[in-house]
Amino acid sequence: MHFLLFLFLASSAFAELLQFGPTTAEPIxxxxxxxxxxxxxxxxxxxxxxxxxxxxxxxxxxxxxxxYVGANYLDRDKKISVENPMSTIAASKFKVxxxxxxxxxxxxxxxxSFIDALxxxxxxxxxxxxxxxxxxxxxxIKEKDxxxxxxxxxxxxxxxxxxxxPKGRLEGSGPGFADNFWKMWFAKTIDGGVEExxxxxxxxxxxx
Length: 208
Fold this sequence. Notes:
Blueprint: E1 7-9, H1 14-17, E2 18-20, E3 36-41, E4 44-60, E5 63-75, H2 85-91, E6 95-101, H3 107-120, H4 130-135, E7 146-153, E8 158-165, E9 168-175, H5 177-186, H6 192-201
Antiparallel strand pairs: 1-9, 2-3, 3-4, 4-5, 5-6, 6-7, 7-8, 8-9
Helix pairs in contact: 2-5, 3-5
């Protein structure tokens, strides 16, 4: 099994990988959502298209709080299957998920939510490349920060995931790596807030 080395790069490389297109007509919770994104990956370039966007909420005690605006993008302007979203996700060689945070958040809480979501979908987070990648998710999160997951073909049969944040970049590769990360939003969800977001990301409903 082949794994690429994980990289932590300065945030100055952010603009080199992603080029954001025009925004949609309606912002979501005050967040402008690009309708397209161009991925500039080494010797490859791909344009991905918005499938849907919405607010990820989290129930805290008796309150429901807004956590982030999520927006998903796939290549070749794919329409996601409502009945089997992962079949469409897996067919897209390039995929992008943006998370624009609506509040300051402890990065440990986000890392734990990723771990819980991957476990829910049968991923062994104690094995590589997942453990090293998740251990690296330690970037401070401030309101209006945008985190971007970029999934793309890697070497041989592997898939690469790059996480771009205002504080830096994290990268990892392995067989099925990107598809497994997208299961956090499109397969088994960890709570009602993500389930509601899933409906928006597949384009069946839309937040304003």
